[in-house]
Amino acid sequence: MLIYLPDARDGLPALVERFGSVSGFIQNHLPGWRVPVGDFRVPKFKIKFGFEASEVLKGQGLVLPFSAKACIEVDEQGTEAAAASAAVLSEMWCKRVEKVDFVADHPFLFVVREDVSGAVLFLGQLLNPSIAA
């Protein structure tokens, strides 16, 4: 999962605009090196999505039923695993590299992406992290 946290608390609309209009945005905004992380906080959240496509597809001549459901959930285990990885990585760097705090306390964009192909599997926004999960 990739999380794009705008610098400005009200910066999500501009980030979404750039994400949709700049070719290669994801690839161009991945760090080229490991970044040591200090304070790492992402809120718990759960997002469910369902889509009943049968009626739409019947209009296209497909008569088989089709529906899609997805669920994205970030909880303590996911956050702890990411924080533990960040702590291990930060010790691998020389002491001159300053740690970066990552505190997702305002609206952000998240992406679940397949690593090998880079295909985006899920894309979403968390608009109010203070009331998540």
TrEMBL record:
Pfam families the record matches: Serpin
Superkingdom as given in the UniProt entry: Eukaryota
Domain Serpin as annotated: residue spans: 69-129
Cellular component GO terms, alphabetical: extracellular space
InterPro entries on file: Serpin_CS, Serpin_dom, Serpin_fam, Serpin_sf, Serpin_sf_1, Serpin_sf_2
Gene3D superfamilies linked to this entry: Alpha-1-antitrypsin, domain 1 (2.30.39.10), Antithrombin, subunit I, domain 2 (3.30.497.10)
Any GO MF annotation of the entry: serine-type endopeptidase inhibitor activity
Family under the similarity heading: Belongs to the serpin family.
Name of the molecule in the record: Probable non-inhibitory serpin-z5
Species, as recorded: Phtheirospermum japonicum
